Amino acid sequence: MITTLKPFILLLTSGFLLMLGYGLSNILLPVRMQSDGVSLDNMGLVLSMLSVGFLLGAYYSRILLQRVGHIRIFAMCGSLTSVAILLSGLYPEPLILAGMRIVTGFCIACTNATLDSWLSHSATEKNRGRILSINQMMIMTALFSGQFLLNVAPIDDITLFVICGILFSLSITPIVISRQKGPQIEDSPSMSLMTVFKLSPLGVVSSFYCGILYAGLMNMLPIFASKNGITDLDLSIFMGSAISGAIILQFPIAYLSDNFDRRKVMLFMVATLIVLCLSVPLLMSEDMFKLTLFAIALITGLVACLYPMSMSETFDTVLKEQILAAMSSLLLIYALGSILGPYLASVVMNSFGSSALFSFMNVVALTLLLFIGIRMKLQQALPLDEQEGFIMQTPSGVVSELDPRTQYAEAQFESTAEVEVAISLANKNPSAAVNMVKALVQRDPNNASNLAAALSTIEAIDIGKLYAAITSAAPQMSIHIAEALTNASPEQADQLVDWITSEYPDQFTNIVVAIANAMPDNGIDLMELAAENMAEEYPSELLEMTEEYMTNLSDSLDAMRPVDRVAAASENTATELYNRLTDVSPEQSAELAFTVSESLPESSNDVAEAYVQNLIDSENESENESEQIFSEDALENIEHAANNYINHMVDNIPEHAVDVASTFVDSFPEVASDMLEILQDSDDIEDSELTTSIDDKPLQSIVEQQLQEAIQTQSDDIEQSS
Predict the structure, then answer these.
(1) Which of 47, 399, 409, 644 has its CA 20 to 30 A from that of 109?
(2) C-alpha dihedral sign at 691, 697, 700, 701
(3) CA–CA separation, 576 vs 181, rounded Å?
(4) CA distance 520 to 512
(5) Where's the Major facilitator superfamily (MFS) profile domain (predicted)?
(6) Whether 335 contacts 59, CB under 8 Å
(7) What DSSP assignment string belongs to 16-29?
(8) Concatenated DSSP letters for 550-562?
(9) Closest Cα partner for 50 from 439, 396, 563, 314?
(10) Are 1-182 and 189-409 the same fold in CATH?
(11) What's the half-sphere exposure (Cβ side, CA atoms, 13 Å) at 707?
């Protein structure tokens, strides 16, 4: 834990100080407005303005980070938040308070986005989930602690506003003196609200309801407490229990979400919420303060958990690379709900009394309960092993790249002192820079990949020569260096593959596969390029390279989420790879088909279809593609190849042999009887399996038809002879 936290201590310290002041301001403003005699509906309107600022901050934060940078944005927002809270203390009129609340919400969203992207850039794929949890715990702990600062000075005094301003200003210091540099921010993908709604209606609706419930509850709860005689330290304890519930309840809800049907868990959560909301006014009327604290903790915990539950429900239906875009849309939906929540709750409380806050909660929760029930009837639940996991997450106005469910984007290279010197030298003298890096790698081979990636971004440096120089100093790092070069300069990947297959004929197989795997969108193109350079002289290596690439693809499919696995369309990838490589090396068509099918058995049928089509095309003597004219030798060649193929399938992939045989018969009915005979002679294929498949495929009917035609021909011959 200490090792994980050490690089981020100053960043987390800045975040803690900021959220500590924010926690104090959240309880201070409603209590102060109540003390000043502001009407309830005006109070609700002022408090709703925070979410308006959050919405604006969530939208513009990434643009500002790209233009201005992390440190400047954090410093600006810390300063503006300090000004906003001080002006709120000096001029507590509703209009001024509303404006300053917008500023505060905007700045908090921007600072959270700053910290999150900074942490995301510095984290690794293995520890980013842990860092996310630590960051969330830091936020909630600071908010919890901020409630107790309310007792430092009188409510009517400006001192508490000054303390908030000090905390906001002080939060700038640790991040400014940090040695870490803010990362470069790239454009993030987007997804329309309608698209997200079509993918996951329940995820979108529950996220919106969470905004109404959570913002309405947390903003109006201090007013409810004050109206019921809870003041001073008791008020801090009351609000502290609410925030602690939002922290503690994440753990049992996470267990339930991951081990049971999530929609049933959500239904149970909302039903429990309704019961608890009914109990709070009764407990308050009976003066049961401790039980009221417990009920409030459970209520806020249940409401707070609706947001991560909504995210998990939505992520079940989106691709991994779309998760950030979906998260952004959910945050927008949540923000819209949180704008409405405080104002609607204040209107209800103004009309029916402070206890009507929980009646308002109940009405909203009942409609959500009804919607969950409808969705459960309309759509069947996913199997437990296909449900997305629950990750502790608070709606902080940020799209978190720390979430381990998002696609991890590894940094091209780490900007060390050696890297900066090498890049500076490369801009002036590329050859000298390569020689310098080669010397550095000889001294420290573990730094080879990072230095190679850095220099590959310099246009004047030939990537092939760079690879040769660095691998000569650290040959054991050749694969890692190739991957690093590809990740840093993907546009030069084809040049690197061409160079390696020409200059490294004794070891290119593993290296080319590593490069192709590093570029999944263009992997087949790179494999085809390598095949063109090696097919004639290294046919066995071509098969070895194909097998390794397809095996890696198969392994990656096992690790994918179900929705990503379906979208990957691995059968299409396998067929395209086979067709591309067969075009390069047609004499290896059968061996390539066997290799691809054995490495990815589920693609056997598609590959067999492509193989038999290639076989027919190669023997077809007609110039018209729609016609099929075969000589006797061609027919014999096709039948011989088909029999060899199905024999190979029976010996190596018997579970797919029947389907493959049916595919051959569909394309070339003349082999039907041979196919059936081979399958029936196999000890690895049960009769029941063959019979079941034959019922679904035309294999049996074709054989029977051929036999009937043969019998009819013999009868005709007998009649003619007589």
Answers:
(1) 409
(2) positive
(3) 44
(4) 13
(5) 7-377
(6) no
(7) HHHHHHHHHHHHHH
(8) HHHHHHHHHHS-H
(9) 396
(10) yes
(11) 10
599-655 pLDDT tens trace: 999 899 999 989 988 888 887 755 555 566 767 777 888 888 888 988 888 888 888
User: Taking the model in full, what pTM does it have?
Assistant: 0.82
Q: How far is CA 637 from CA 293, 555, 579, 606, 662, in A?
A: 84, 36, 20, 21, 19
Residue 212's alpha-carbon distances to 65, 407, 454, 504, in angstroms, are: 29, 30, 48, 63
Torsion over CA: 242, 247, 252, 254 (sign): positive
| Distance from C-alpha of 101 to C-alpha of 84, rounded to nearest angstrom | 7
Closest CA to 632 of 670, 599, 606: 670
How far is Cα 139 from Cα 396, in angstroms, rounded to an integer? Answer: 9
Q: Is 279 exposed, middle or buried (0-12, 13-18, 19+ CB in 10 A)?
A: middle
Q: Letter for the amino acid at 593?
A: A
Whether the pLDDT of residue 560 is over 90: the answer is no
With contact defined as beta carbons under 8 Å apart, do 246 and 299 qualify?
no
Query: In CATH, which of 1.10.150.120, 1.20.1250.20, 1.10.3110.10, 3.10.180.10 is domain 189-409?
Result: 1.20.1250.20
Identify the three-state secondary structure at position 66.
helix
**Could you give the percent of the chain with pLDDT greater than 70?**
89
In angstroms, what CA-CA distances link 611 with 192, 606, 653?
42, 9, 16
Size (the chain), residues: 722
Q: Which CATH fold topology does 1-182 show? A: Growth Hormone; Chain: A; (1.20.1250)
Token pair recorded at residue 501 = 């297959």
Is the pLDDT score of 459 beyond 80?
A: yes
Angle at which helix 478-488 crosses helix 463-473, to 10 degrees, equals: 150
pLDDT value for 720: 54
As a whole number of angstroms, the distance between CA 42 and CA 49 comes to 11
- What Å distances lie between residue 330 and 44, 266, 548, CA to CA? 23, 17, 40
Q: What is the per-residue pLDDT for 695?
A: 43
Mean local confidence (pLDDT), 524-535: 87
Amino acid at site 706: Q
Q: What angle do CA 677, 679, 684 make, to 5 degrees?
A: 145
Please, what is the average pLDDT of the chain? Answer: 85
Decide if 266 contacts 305 (C-beta within 8 A).
no
In the chain, the amino acid numbered 674 is D
Structural domain spans, the chain: 1-182, 189-409, 574-722
Residue type, 182: G
Token pair 């309960």 is at which residue? 369
Task: Report the distance separating Cα 185 and Cα 63, nearest Å.
Answer: 9
pLDDT in tens, 215-238: 999 999 999 999 999 988 999 999
Angle (CA) 433 435 440, round 5°:
90
Q: Taking Cα atoms as reference points, which of 183, 246, 225 lies closest to residue 27? A: 225
Indicate whether 716 pLDDT > 60.
no
CA 300 to CA 256: how far, in whole Å?
17
CA 709, CA 669: separation in Å to the nearest integer?
13
Question: How far is it, in rounded angstroms, from Cα 171 to Cα 464?
Answer: 48
Q: Which residues of 345-497 form beta strands (DSSP E)?
A: none
Strands (E) located in 118-243: none
Q: Is the pLDDT of residue 320 over 70?
A: yes
